[in-house]
Amino acid sequence: MQISDDMIKYVAELAKLELSDEHKEQAKKDMSDMLEYVNTLNELDTSNVEPMSHCFPVANVLRDDVVTNSNDRDNMLLNAPDKSEDSYIVPKTF
Amino acid sequence: MSKEYEAVIGLEVHVELNTKTKIFCGCSTAFGGSPNINVCPVCSGMPGSLPVLNRAVVDKAISIGLATNCNITRNSKFDRKNYFYPDNPQNYQISQLYYPICRDGKIEIETENGKKFVRIHEMHMEEDAGKLIHNTFTGETYVDFNRSGVPLVEIVSEPDMRSADEVLAYLDKLRLTVQYLNASDCKLNEGSMRVDVNMSLREKGTEKLGTRTETKNLNSFKAIKRCIENEFERQADILDAGEKVVQETRRWDDDKGYSYTMRSKEDAQDYRYFPDPDLVPLIIDDEWLARIKASQPELRDEKKERYAREYGIPEYDIGLITEYKELANIFEDGVNSGADPKKVSNWIIGETLRLAKDFETDIADISFSGKNLASLIKLLDEKKINNTIAKQVFEHVFKENVNPVEYAEKNNLIIKTDTGALAEMVKKAVAANPKAVADMKAGKKKAMGAIVGFVMKEMKGKCDPAEVNKLVMEELAKL
Q1: In what helix (H) or strand (E) does residue B400 lie, and over which residues does it extend?
Q2: DSSP letter, residue B42
Q3: Which of A40, B45, B108, B401 has the smallest number of Cβ neighbours within 10 A?
Q4: Inside any domain, residue B151
Q5: B16: Cβ–Cβ under 8 A, 6 or more apart, which residues?
Q6: B173 - beta bridge partners?
Q7: Which residues in chain A are closer than 8 Å to B61, comparing Cβ atoms?
Q8: Are B40 and A60 within 8 A, CB to CB?
Q9: Residues B370, B401: Cα–Cα separation, whole Å
Q10: CB atoms within 10 A of CB B309
Q11: Do residues B349 and B313 share a domain?
């Protein structure tokens, strides 16, 4: 499957990526290769196979409504590129 | 000449469920407090963390679905809704698009124009986002993930409402149902219930739907009503001018009393939903459904019918009492403790609501026991206290849930049954009020009040006015 310029531009926008022209061409090629690869699956006749909603034959993995957390704020904020005493800091939103 | 239009309104209502923990992790859902203290790798979107569904969320969602006459989806699952925003640490929200937990419900509403059904298209479970706090001085935005992962259900109605009144009736019915089920406190001003209004206009008598707008940021029932009226006029003006309504999302500004465009259809987001591979399917079997059905509490409509049938109290009283499940609980507790239903009702719709207003107490926070109200009524019935004292005692029942008998005894408020002392006091009163006595003799019945009042005051209210009246009449007859 051929990926159009418009398509790659749209996907980049959704992923919040700025691609150079060179990257764009590379991404177009990678994406069509991937789609082609996945397309192999269509060769299999699945008309007699029940559709499934998950790849494992497991359902209902649930937990009871019991509090297990403790205040781990300081550890969590270690990952933050920018932080205040108690919060992440991000660029201004509106 | 302008045409006559009809509003077509559908609602998307988010309700925050009151489980102890979040939907996919064991973090507490406690409201308020310091930022980022109820956060773990799951609800802060750390790579490699795995969500596990909270059983209580499913129980509550099914419970709401049953109460709103929905079909419960026996094979349900979760999907990822992808978008970038700092309040969403995973860059996707776990929601349900393809197999929502409930579908095809309806609830009956009543307005001045009578009763009608509003259909529910679907209801799904999802996780809430974190909170962004903006600092206007520094231009920075702080992120608090305490709310990230708090369970929500989104209830999507069909476009069956035609006026602000119908919308408010629907929301009120929904709020009461969810509150009676103990699934959420449904406070619009605190965000535990959030309403988006989808609205279009069409010429009266026509069937075809017009272009709709969606309005957000409605934090009170009053704001919703104003917004609908405002949007009706805005769209009517556009249509009258021969122009087209633009499909867009608008934001209501309640201070200014109008809405403005947030985003239009052109920059509508592409959420690229897909099944969440971290969560396995959810299968609701007969046993699970039967368990929830068996534990459904009595809802408001059922209560209203039963109160009329069993207690014979007026419809007006029933309406006020069942408006809040807290009041209904107090009422039933009082009646079950042996008090007369109408008397219990009078104390609830009278003094209780008056004190709630005076002390600015949220009615949902009223928590005195009906049993204490019943014993206060018993004290009155047995004439051990009079009405004025009863009101004083009740204030303490309302505020501190005191036992009225103990309180009245401790504060020496019980009427003295010592008739000898009362008779003495009546004699004293007659002697001390010669003018009133003379007036009485001259046929001025009003003068009686001065003598009775004297006794009541001297006895500090601890006597039965009817009894005093009788004794004064006897005393005067002797003169």
Answers
A1: helix B387-400
A2: T
A3: A40
A4: yes
A5: B128, B150, B151, B152, B184, B191, B192, B193
A6: none
A7: none
A8: no
A9: 10
A10: 8
A11: yes
Residue written as token pair 């049953």: B66
Complex-level ipTM: 0.89
Residue of higher predicted confidence among B167 and B466: B167
- State whether A54 and B280 contact (CB < 8 Å): yes
The residue in chain A having the minimum alpha-carbon distance to the alpha carbon of residue B18 is A65
Each residue of A34-57: pLDDT tens digit? Answer: 999 999 988 889 888 887 777 888
Chain A nearest-CA residue for B86: A90
Asked whether B101 and B125 are in contact (CB, 8 A), the reply is yes
List the domain range (segments joined by +) for residue B451.
Answer: 419-478
Query: Structure tokens of A50?
Result: 């029940």
Number of structural domains, chain B?
Answer: 3
Residues of B in contact with A63 (CB under 8 A): 26, 52-55
Secondary structure (H, E, C), chain A: CCCCHHHHHHHHHHCCCCCCHHHHHHHHHHHHHHHHHHHHHHHCCCCCCCCCCCCCCCCCCEECCCCCCCCCHHHHHCCCCCECCCCEEECCCC
**Hey, what are B231's tokens?**
């949007």
Q: Tell me the β-bridge partners of B13.
A: B155, B195
pLDDT at position B59, please?
97
Q: What are the chain A neighbours of B57 within 8 Å (beta carbons)?
A: 65
All structural domains of chain A: 5-43 (1.10.20)
Which residues are CB-neighbours of A81 under 8 A, at least 6 positions away?
none
Q: In the structure, what pLDDT confidence band is assigned to residue B267 with cuts at 50, 70 and 90? A: low
Q: Residues A58-74: what's their mean pLDDT? A: 92
Instruction: Report how far apart, in Å, the C-alpha atoms of B320 and of each of A34, B68, B324, B352 are.
Output: 64, 22, 8, 11
Among A73-82, B215-224, B436-445, where is mean pLDDT lowest?
Answer: B436-445
- Within 10 angstroms of residue B82's Cβ, the number of other Cβ atoms is 18
Nearest residue on chain A to B57, judged by CA atoms? A65
Residues B76 and B168 in one domain: yes
- Entry pTM: 0.83
The Cα of A37 is separated from the nearest Cα of chain B by a number of Å equal to 20
Mean pLDDT of chain B: 91
Question: Length of chain A in residues, anyone?
Answer: 94
